[in-house]
Amino acid sequence: MSILLKSVSLLAGITFSVPAFGDCLTAKETKRGVLLTREAPFYSVFCKPDGPGLTEQRLMERDGSLQPVSAVYLHPLLVEKRVSASGTHALKYANAIALDNLPEKKNWQSGTTLFINGKKSVSGTTFIRFDGLGEETIASCSYKVWAINSRLELTELPPIIFEQYYSPELHLVLRSVRLGHSNRPLNELRFDRFQIGWGN
Q1: Which of 109, 85, 66 is CA-nearest to residue 10?
Q2: How confident is the model at residue 10 (pLDDT cuts 50, 70, 90)?
Q3: pTM for the full predicted model
């Protein structure tokens, strides 16, 4: 795998879900920030709304060690920057971010440029498609969601494709599935527990 392909792959998987036990999450609680944890392999992320977007602080197990990662989203469906031990990867979008009206517009796309450690790397297009309404059940809690197909195509690199289930009320993606070239599911991200605010 090329260094560039590895770098682009770092942008994949910046999604999360909110399993619940006991009381269900509300929009008011989410504004305080939510700590989400998957037990095995260990993956813990604190996400907090920041205007129309959100910020994320993640600690994940990879190759036998815990690795911290931070990310900034322009919208919960659209990552802007990711910082890890391998450097800073940023995506710049040519079009205005207009994702809150996806159920009416059905599609959004934008020219997209990848910057690695501040240097322009490759360009391409981001496509986001609204596929319908539904409900996502986490433990005993159900939330109304939008089914979203998100696709990032950068020059001479394989596309990064996700199926996401986004709660506009909570301002969070509740489940995310990474898809392969033929739309075959490759992996899915779910969490075992959540906590309001920062802590364990």
Answers
A1: 85
A2: very low
A3: 0.82
